[in-house]
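Structure ticket #2291
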Amino acid sequence: MTVSRPLHLAAEIGGRPQYDAGYYTGLALLAERGTLDFITLDDSFARPGPDAPAVLARVAPGTGRIGLVPAVTTTHTEPFHVSSAVATLDWVSRGRAGWSPAVSETAAEAALFGRRDAAPRADLWHEAGEVADVAARLWDSWDDDAEIRDVATGRFIDRDRLHYTDFTGRTFSVRGPAIVPRPPQGHPVTVVDGAGAAAREAAVRHADVVLVRADDPLTARTFREEIRNRAAAHGRSPDQLRVLVSLPVELHTGADAVGLARLIADWYEQDAADGFHLLPADVERDLPLIVDGTVPVLQHHCLLRRFYPGATLREHLGLARPAGRYAQNPGGRP
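Resolution: structure written out below.
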C-alpha cells in the first residue's frame, strides 16, 4: 500500500517498572506487528526502575523493525556518555534507535549526584539542547569510512577520518572524538517533548520529531505550523521534521479502539499533525486493542501502511540520513 502522506504512529510502553526483559520485548513485538514507527520508554531519576536505554538495548535483538526511543536524562549526565549510549543502541538495533532528551529539575534528584544544585527549567532545557548539539557532533566525529580494519598493517581506523568536536557549552565542554563509530543512521532520531516554551525552543533547533499536547485539531495544527516555521527560521528544512500529537488513550473494548481510529483519522485529515504518539493508561490492556482494533481500521481506510518500507527508524519516518559535518575536512575541526 502506498500512502501519499504517511501517517506516523508511536506508543509509550512504560508504566509500572518491570525487571523482566521479556515483558518489554513482548510489548515491542506487539507494536511491531501493528507497524508502528517506534515505541518510547519513559525514564526519570525521580522514581525507581530500570535504565531505559539499557532496557531497549536488550529489546533490540528480539525485534526486527520497530524503532526504539528511550528517554535519556541530560541533567547530571555526561554528554559524552549520552552520545555513546544512544550510538550503541543504534548499532545493536541496526539503525532503529532514537532518544528523547529529558531534564531533571528537583533538589532531590540533584542530591542523588551531589555535583550541583537544581536549576531553573529554562536553563536545563538550554543545556539539553547543547547536549543534543554535541551528541550530533560526536556521532559525526567518525567518518562513515573511518574503520579500515587492515589486518596486514594492524590498523583498525584511519586517524585522518576522526575529528575533534571542541564543543564548549554553558555547563560542559567536550573535545572528542567519540569512542563509538558513526551510527548506522548517521544520527539516531532525536524526539523532543515540546510541552513548554523552553522545551519547544530546544525542539525547533535540534529535534527530528516533536511531540505536542493539544485538545483539538485546530490547536494541534497551530502548534505544527509554529514549530515548522520556527525550525525554518533556524535554517532547518521543515520537511525534515515530524510533529506528532501525544494522545492519552484509555481503551476497554474494541468499540473504543475503533473510536480512536476515527479520532486519529479526523485530526489527521485536518492537517493537525504528521502522526500520533499514543500514551496508554494501561499498556497491557490498551496496546493490544490499538494493534488489533485501531490499526486495522486505519489500514482499511488507506491511512496507515501494512508493512515497513525500510529497515531504519529514519526510513520509517521518511527522514534523510544526514551527512557527516567533518567529512570534507580531514583530521580537523569544522
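Closing remark: The first helix runs from residue 21 to 33.
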